[in-house]
């Protein structure tokens, strides 16, 4: 059996998978700053904060603003006739549920 090393841990892999694993690339976080010195815990915390902001919070805000604009656009387009207004409200509800 061959072994795969990840961060000084050894994992045993069945020999039948060796040929399949030769073509697989993996990504491992390297927390060194280029001088082979590890970054501090505070640096990792800042990285986590900024990556969370840019990968989760910023897209969430942008998508929420766009959904709000869609909602107000659809709300303005309601028809004055009561029968058509109910139909338009139902259509708007369906469109909003699809977009969310």
Would you mind describing this structure in some detail?
With 100 residues, the chain is mostly helical. 58% of the residues lie in helices and 10% in strands. The chain is built from 3 helices and 2 strands. The chain has a two-stranded antiparallel sheet. α2 packs antiparallel against α3. It is elongated.
How are the SSEs placed, and which strands pair?
Elements: E1 2-6, E2 9-13, H1 18-21, H2 41-76, H3 82-99
Antiparallel strand pairs: 1-2
Helix pairs in contact: 2-3
Which features would summarize this protein structure in a list?
two-stranded antiparallel ribbon, elongated, 3 helices, single chain, mainly alpha, 100 residues, 2 strands
In short:
With 100 residues, the chain is mainly α. It is built from 3 helices and 2 strands.
């Amino acid at each position: 059996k061959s072994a795969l090393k990840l961060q000084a841990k050894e994992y045993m892999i069945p020999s039948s998978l060796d040929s399949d694993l030769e073509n697989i690339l993996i990504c491992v976080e390297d927390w060194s700053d280029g001088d082979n010195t590890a970054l501090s815990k505070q640096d990792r915390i800042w990285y986590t904060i900024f990556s969370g902001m840019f990968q989760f919070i910023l897209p969430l805000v942008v998508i929420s603003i766009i959904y709000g604009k869609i909602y107000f656009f659809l709300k303005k387009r309601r028809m004055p006739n009561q029968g058509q207004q109910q139909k338009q409200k139902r259509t708007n509800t369906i469109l909003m549920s699809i977009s969310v």
